[in-house]
């Protein structure tokens, strides 16, 4: 049976924490920060690559953003179910945005290599060349988890690292596991009036990285607000994606805001394009 059959009521945050707990990465795998964001060196822990350099995927003249991908043979050949879960996640972007994931060709210089490594992880934004997105066969093959890692690859960070997060959540470092404090560092994002989204698929749960099962994050001003329960992209996630990549058929060109099918949300992240539009 496929992974999705036993997901029950678990959120993406729950699934990620379960899949990535007690990981022992191999020597050729990246360092993970924020639980599932890949970086290649210790120095990158304190620098958001999307604010220090451009990391968007380029747009073509037809207004679409084509992102090549290759699904490796790590996934079970005896059934199509594993690849079907990944493919469904890839294709979910095309119905709500101008993002089009397509199979890679030999002429592609940059592409996503979707592999089953240790845990679930992705780099943030376009890095150039082969770019690994890990979706371990044990623990990561869920629709929302696939979307979460692909949003990282598109340039998005976790919701709780927003520059204005202190106005929306209070981080309780006294409850955070020793050595995991860096997972709660803020990033110098340009939020441009974007509302904080407790329902974002990029928002971690209340007890993420807790050493004592007590909350590591508490909403403010209302501590009883539910958050970190998303199982797929929220309407705000979709709206931000469309604004970031200027998906004209999904946004109002006069305002840059999303059409009525999604909430009015502006871009969250400071990401610049390195490719001509």
Pick out its properties.
alpha/beta; Collagenase (Catalytic Domain); five-stranded mixed β-sheet; two-stranded antiparallel sheet; globular
What does this 3D model show about the protein?
The protein has 277 residues and is of the alpha/beta class. It has a domain at 12-154: Collagenase (Catalytic Domain), CATH 3.40.390.10. It contains five helices and eleven strands, in the order H-E-E-H-E-H-E-E-E-E-H-E-E-H-E-E. The strands form four sheets. A five-stranded mixed beta sheet has the order 4-3-5-7-6. A two-stranded antiparallel sheet has the order 1-2. A two-stranded antiparallel sheet has the order 8-9. The model is unreliable at 253-257 and 259-277 (pLDDT under 50). Zn(2+) binds at residues 148, 152, 158.
